[in-house]
Amino acid sequence: MESNDNGAIVVADRIEKRFGAAGAGSLALDGVTLAIPRGRVVGLVGRNGSGKTTLLRVLQGLLLPTNGRARVFGTDVAQLGDADLARLGAVHQENRFLTWMSGRAHLDFVRSFFTSWDAQRERRLVDALELDLAQKIGTMSPGNVQKLAIVAATCHRPQLLLLDEPAAALDPLAREALLQSLLELLREDGPAIVISSHALRDVERIVDWITCLERGRVVKDAPLDVLQEGYAEWRVTTPRGALPARFVEPWVISQAVEGRQAVLCVRDPEEHRAHFATRYQAEVESRPLGLERLFPLWIDRGPA
Amino acid sequence: MLILLDSHSGKPVFRQILEQVRFQVAGGILKPGDELPSTRQLAADLDLNPMTVSKAYAQLEQEGVVERRPGLSLVVRAPRGDELDARRREELARVLGPAASAARQLGLDVDVALEVFRQALARRGGDDGKQ
Asked: CA A172, CA A130: separation in Å to the nearest integer?
């Protein structure tokens, strides 16, 4: 392995991607820098048009960056060869498969490119996803096409798996089956996985890292647990005395004050809690914020 | 080892594991010398990314709750001196924090609050206990 990126499978160094003419076109990626090691599961989040899909396509060499460099397995994405591609698995948001093929024929076609194809995994996955391989792709529902794409992308034991909204068309049972199969992959092969998703609930259980894009920029890139513990919701009650009409502490992100009670959304809760409680003679009940509620904070405030 | 995860609590999963193992060790459910399931095994049992389990285990090791035997998995470390006692007090203090806060908000006298706690201690089988 020519990986000289400190063991990182993916390295992006200030990549820019411009669509359209220089100076006039729009910047889909605006200086993205990332490193993803083996075993990490990244939840790639961001609004529509924030650059998630473009980034995933750059990492597969399907689009080349306008500026900056991206390497996968230590190879520049412009130079990815067969050996690199054989270690890569991807599920696209929109799959363009040959509609006249059956699911079975498609899988046989895909597996013919790989010596590492795991037929047992394929069988388990097809069963778990309740996928009918006899059906022609042209007559499959979008959900079933997505299931087929997942099977096709994961059975060759990829060391990097790029999933663009993999659960979007799936019902809850199929989502669960997808999660289970990703967990199995992690236990057996320990690949790096990048999952882009709007449905934060879906990814929260499996990702250990969050990368958030906004207008082509990385506005958050941190371990999930650090982000979870970096914010909290407080219910503040002061049995005696009164609370200020408005808290001016810079780490208070949002607030609702009503007489002797307040609900605050705060940054770095454990750092401030004891001092705050003493200062206002207040009881502080602290609760974590879910990922769904954290997400808007990053988008609105930009890099923190 | 039984771990119960709340995936909707917003509390990091590694911390949930950490706290529950600590509590079980302090309470003697996990005894010195007991072997923890391997990272892989616990990850499989709980449907988790193995990295999450590793993180909890690494911290337990760092805190001296468990130790790694050469070539073996993690085992519960025998406590030294009054370490076990200190840990038990710590665990109880942690769950009593919110109760104390509630007592203050309710304006209960210390004596009354202690009386309520005494009664709660005498009551068995209640599930209004920990976590």
From this structure: 13
